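Thread: "does anyone have the structure for this chain?"

Original post by V.I.:
We have the sequence but no experimental structure in hand. Need at least a predicted one for the grant figures.
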Amino acid sequence: MNEANEARPTLRSLVVAPHPDEAALPAAAVRDAGVRTLRGVPYAEVNGSRPLELDLWLPARTNTPAPLVLFVHGGAWMRGRRDDMGPRTRDWNPGPFARLAAEGLAVACLDYRLSGEAVFPAQVDDLHSALRWLTLRRDELGIDTTRTVAWGESAGGHLAALLALTRPTPPLRGAVIWYGPGGDLTAERENYSPWDPDTPEARMLGAAPASDPPWAHTASPSARAHPQAPPFLLVHGERDTMVPCSHSRELAAALRHQGVSAELRTLPGCEHGWYGASEEEVEDVFARSLAFAARVLG
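Reply from O.Q.:
Generated one for you, tokens below.
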């Protein structure tokens, strides 16, 4: 009798939602070209925080698992939406993620904890957790996480770069970074003081970067470059006043110094978020980024 009572589930275990590792996947919505979407899928539970979710864009079903793009949104680490690739792609029809899926790439668009919820390295930890969950559920999803590219814009580019440089499991095949803060966060730049405790960088770190340089360097992609890093594509506007183009130049130089392939493309006259670029230039950036991802994914 006691054994039966011990085996009976507790009320607490019954009322709590299933853990993301075991929860049933939602039904997929089928779109044009057989592209399937799964929205709001929990991938991690963090004590004291909201459940972290992702959206999935999956190509038409085939017998071969699809390579993966892990997309990380921007928003100064303080805001943003996981399904937003930046202001110049919001009116595209089909949208950027549907385009990637139509080309045979699965896309996972991630939530991560914002700086008002947790400070660094929580954001990068969340990306590692998402990759772990996607690997765990890969057979159900029809994806191959051994062929993954991280793709991020702005603050998401910073986090995507750090994910690629912090030896995730499985290792990434490449990283696409759009106008991300990839340089030394302790370096003074136009419109940015590393001593200011109210910058987005300081809020992300939990302190002004210059007040603790060793800690800030752990969050500086250029300081984390190593010879085993995957290839990078860095694209940046030369007139960016929010995240100066020097960030991408520094990261490219640091990667090349380690013998890592780093392709740097800059857009003259272009501001943050591709403002100032023509529609043809934005389409070209996207096409080059897709071509890079397809190439490194094999």
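V.I.: this helps a lot. The first helix runs from residue 2 to 7.
O.Q.: and The chain has one domain: 24-297.
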